[in-house]
Amino acid sequence: MYSNGLSETILGNAIKQFNLPRGEIVVMTKVFFPVKKSHNEPPSANSSYVNQQGLSRKSLERLQLDYIDVLQCHRFDYETPIAETMQALHDVVKLGLVRYIGMSSCWAYQFHAMQNYALANNLTPFISMQNLYNLLYREEEREMMPTLKMFGVGCIPWSPLARGYLSRPYESSFPPTNATAAEASLGSEDKGKTSRQETDKFASFYQTAPKQTIDRIEELAKKKNVPMSQIALAWLLSKEGVTAPIVGVTSIRKLEELVGAVHLKLTPEEQEYLEDGYRPQGIHGHN
User: Fold this and answer.
1) Within 10 A of 267 (CB to CB), how many other CB atoms are there?
2) Does residue 1 register a pLDDT over 90?
3) Quick one: which of 55, 98, 138, 260 is 20 to 30 A from 206 by CA?
4) CA-CA distance, 163 to 159, in Å (whole number)?
5) Is 102 helix (H, G, I), strand (E, B) or coil?
6) What H or E segment, with its residue span, contains residue 130?
7) What integer pLDDT is reported at residue 222 of this predicted model?
8) Residue 242 has pLDDT above 90, yes or no
9) What is the radius of gyration, based on Cα positions, of the chain?
10) Burial status of residue 81 (CB atoms within 10 A of its CB: 0-12, 13-18, 19 or more)
11) Of 17-21, 39-43, 65-69, 153-157, which gets the smallest average pLDDT?
12) What is the predicted pLDDT for the residue at 199?
């Protein structure tokens, strides 16, 4: 899906190199953007790539696999009829190339229409929704989460740590204006902006993040003697329908740290304490 298919190639090589048992891993990928000849080319549309978009991509070849466990639509396709999209997804399932299908960030009415079409026409329905959902962005609770509950579809949120803002103290991400350059950049993971924050276009969305929410995560983390990231993930996992937040890590240590959230339970009072003060905001993550 990402970097014009290079991410699939890397994953496929890793599965082969480490001889990972196929029956013990879940492989998920997406379709939407055209796959360019070079992974350095931007993902924007290009008319010269008429047969390199959507389900025409060679994901299985890059992954070196016989089937994909879950194939998701990265975004809603405004240029293709819903009937055609759902039929194509159903076909790859029937061919045995894909086991299940899912959808990613879109309007709730779009997901509702796609799922209803599949169910009404005996086609394969979605089993997952990969949407933007975290303590700093909860707009999905208005329409999407109730829709998922109605259909019995699982939620696998992306950016559950809000680009890392929920995993470090507020002052580390937003140094005081009077801080020196050295103070603001001391320790890229704990002080000042990280390389991810400097280059990630989505990171700017959280520039107005409420200090209260991040401060309360830090407060509970100190109280329970756990990393802030575990508090943020434990809150997300407490929400009905959320099954597997999608996290990104740069080390095994970070991964093990995040996995610890599975064993952390927040009380209803603690959940409410973290949610208090949330401000409604514009839709983000899709259009």
Assistant:
1) 9
2) no
3) 260
4) 6
5) strand
6) strand 126-130
7) 98
8) yes
9) 20
10) exposed
11) 39-43
12) 76
* Distance, CA of 156 to CA of 150 (rounded, Å): 16
What CA–CA distance (Å, rounded) separates 83 from 63? Answer: 28
CA distance 51 to 277: 48
Query: According to DSSP H, which parts of the chain are helical?
Result: 6-17, 59-63, 82-94, 108-120, 144-151, 170-173, 181-185, 195-199, 211-224, 228-237, 252-259, 268-275
Rounded distance between C-alpha atoms, residue 29 and residue 64, angstroms: 13
For residue 185, pLDDT beyond 60: no
Residue 187 has pLDDT above 50, yes or no: no
> Is-catalytic flag, 49?
no
pLDDT exceeds cutoff 70 at 102? yes
Round to whole Å and give the CA distance between 154 and 144. 11
Name the token pair of 154.
């699982």
Instruction: Name residue 102's beta-bridge partners.
Output: 72, 128
